[in-house]
Amino acid sequence: MHYSLHDCNVGTAIPDYSAANVEQAVKQFYLNPSLQSEVHYWLTGAQISQSAWSFCWELMAPNKGIEVQYYGASCLHVKIVRFWHEVPSEQYESLKSKLLETIVQFALGPKIILTRLCVGLSALVLQLLPEQWSDAIQNLISTFQQEGLASLPTVTRCQILLEVLTVLPEEFFSTNLSQQRRIILRQELTKGLDHVIPLLQALLTDESPLEVYQCALKAFSRWVDFGLAIDRAEPIIHQVFRSMRNPHLFDIACDTLISVFAHPESYKYPVTIQRILSEVLALHELLSNAVHDEDKETCEGICRVIVSLSENHTKLIVESVLGPEEVKQNTTSLLQMILACSGLPGHFPVDESCSDQTFTFWYLLQDELSMISEEDYTPLMEVFKPIFFSLIDVLLVKARHPPDADYVSWSLEEKEQFRCYRQDIGDTLMYSYSILGVELLAQLVNCLVTLVEKYKEGTQDWQNVEAILFVFSSISENVQSDEKLYIPKLFSQLREIPFANSQQISTALNMIGSFAEWMQWHPETLSCILPLVLQGISNPEVGTAATIALKDITRENISNIQPFAHQILMACQSCFEANTLKSRDLLRLMSSVGHILSVMSSNEIMQYLDKMITPHIEHLVALSELQPCPSNRADVYTTVNIFAWLFGSLDTELDGGDEEQQHQQLTKQQQQATDPSEPKPIFVILEKISPSIQKISNSWIFDTGIIEAVCDLYKKALQKLDNDFAPLSGELTQLVITLYQRCPSTAIIDLCKQMLLIFGLQENFIPFSKVIVENVCSRSLQMFNTGMRNFTDVIEGFMCFLAQVMKKLKKIILDSTCDLATIFHAAVLSMALPEHATVKASCNFIIEFINGGAESEVIKNVITTHGHILIDRIMRAIGGESQRGIIDYIADVIMALNKHFVSQLAMWLKTILENEGYPSPRASRQDKENFIKNLLRDRMNKRKTRDVVKEFTLLCRGIMGTEYAEAAAAYL
User: Fold this and answer.
1) Fewer CB in 10 Å around end: N or C, the chain?
2) Is 266 helix (H, G, I), strand (E, B) or coil?
3) How far from chain centre, in Å, is Cα 289?
4) Interaxial angle between packed helices 92-105 and 111-128, expressed in degrees from 0 to 180 and rounded to the nearest 10
5) What is the pLDDT of residues 497-535, one digit of tens each?
6) Which residues make Cβ contacts (< 8 Å) with residue 909, sequence separation at least 6?
7) How far is CA 255 from each of CA 88, 193, 208, 313, rounded to the nearest angstrom?
8) Mean pLDDT throughout 357-372?
């Protein structure tokens, strides 16, 4: 049968929430998906109406559908939780009785309704404790233990009672309670444990029916979450361990034990944990059998239990090693079990899926060991170093790629999971290095030498060699720069490896790149590794790894790379001519070219660039003549970026910084070989490509990616050329103005900002500066008239631009034709936008503008004339119109006003806050007077100003004095 909205009065002004209408609406909700949103709104109204107290019972009649019954049970729960104040105290007892009767009615199902009713009963218990139902838990236990309870079977009565006891702690945590009420209820529920624990102990025995045992385990787990102390629960915990032997109880027993070990207060009971540890060790045989039988589910469950105990008691594990012999032995046995979990047979994630659970423990263990005292260091390392060496052996196996035939059959998702798993292994190895140090390097190098020899003999697979190269790359970050014994041996071994496939070569190249910084102190290594890297850049299959390695090496070894410059540049030239690399690899290669050229004289640079860059310039010119279309978009984007990446790395004036000593001699040689009258190479290239770049910019003006690439190109050129860019500054000024007028973007604004910061106050550039500021302001202000919500990213960039101009180039904006009052109004409007970053940028500009008013009469007049508009925006934000996350920015604006315009601020606040109900009806006249007084009193203290504003906004939002206020204040 079809039900219409009219039938259930969904659209009427005064809804008729009768049982019949609600029943029809529920059916309509499931029968007509197109109306679900509207019907849901109507049903929500029904749920909170006074009528729900009566119709909820009717909807749970035995002859109703399960959807209708569920809605009725849910209504009852909502009413008890949120609308308890509607129930007269004299009806408490009848409501309790009726709810218990209904639970008995649904004792045999449906289960979903029974559970919902039990949740409702739990909510009722929380409402009635302690005054109206002081012994609720004991009373419930007694009630359901009665043999004559509606002739229900004993098992059913147990299940219902345990269901109530399971959801009661859950309801305690999920219900919104005041802090005081929560304290009272926690005390009452804790008293109830005196009755819950004996009940659970009685039910968790071998004689209990399976379904009762399962329910008892669930209930125990929830009471552990609530706060049942481990020492008090120890007898039950031992029984839970025994239940793991039962396949029907295994999963729930594992979940229960994980709750026990993960409880935040379990660390308070180290002696109990030590006793429980013997139960964990007794799982060893069960784990071994599961591994032998390839029982993945059992392996995973046991691993979860072991890891939960270990992760949450790492400090105890470390301390136990120094304890009595038996305790020490148990601890080392536990560590061996964790190693077994880390090294489960097979490949993750296809053959096994739980060895990754152990990674967090190994991190926590090394972190704990890093904090030990000197006196404990030696005895602890005697135990833990062998453990970590064993872990290295385990992870070397787990990091291996599967055989090629198997790997081909893996899905893309499985391959990606394995890649991430290897990354986690790499992180774990890095932590291990902090414990083992150079001893680890010695072991790995010896292992590599052995593996390479066997590999050359054909008795080892390529995967074994690849795995150990991967391990070296993982620990490279921690290797000290003065290490000169083992890493050179590593690189010498690379020449001995007959590489078999692209995966093996890529890993070797990644490993080489990871030691790029170390090579800076050991330049003799470059001759050993560069042939493999240069060979790799010509191979498309390993091009990504090779270009990354080359980029890292050339960047980190500027002072050592000159002897190899010609060799590298010729290899790069061959790659450019072959045109077989991916776009991103090509860009990295060009970045390497820039680094190499940076160590040469101007004449040499131009000779190489003529060969290498001319084809790209010609290609750029050709692209600039084409009409925009999807087919050539990627080509345009890559070609523009080729020059941007070259400009980013080509630096003919290397100096200073942390590498001053290394570059000092190199810089001196460059200066001697460079003719100051000669234009810099970047300038020469830029002069050639600028006409084409301008054409491309105008053609692709609406393509954000290409415009960002163009702006990036000019920004990098500006950074490297600085004042030498001046001859092209007028041309670039015209370009950015044209682009911004047609299609404003943050990339263009950022470029304009950089131009102004470099040239802004230079006498010959001041006219350009004014033009840029005037055009950016006029075009940006238009956005405020055409729907500013569509341009929030650009408005954010505009406000950042204004803040920088006001801070460092105030003279430019004051001498321009910009309407400062309109700009001020725009900034105030921007403060109302929902994006935090935009509000922050707007506030930063306004603060700079206010600070400028101390020196400029023009700015001062704008603020004194229009400041009341700013105050209105500020108070509306504080009153609740804006999100709380921006309140600190607002407070900083108030402080700036307090510093420079204190009398006007006091007047504006007093005038605007006299309005009734403003900025919030929750703020009384006295509250507002106190707010003004406190602001003016602490006007030079940033922290106190923020605190005053935070307190007032909490009051205005109606959360002052609630349990939420403390958390909200901390968030603010």
Assistant:
1) N
2) helix
3) 39
4) 160
5) 999 899 999 999 999 999 999 999 999 999 999 999 999
6) 871, 875, 931, 932, 935
7) 42, 21, 20, 18
8) 95
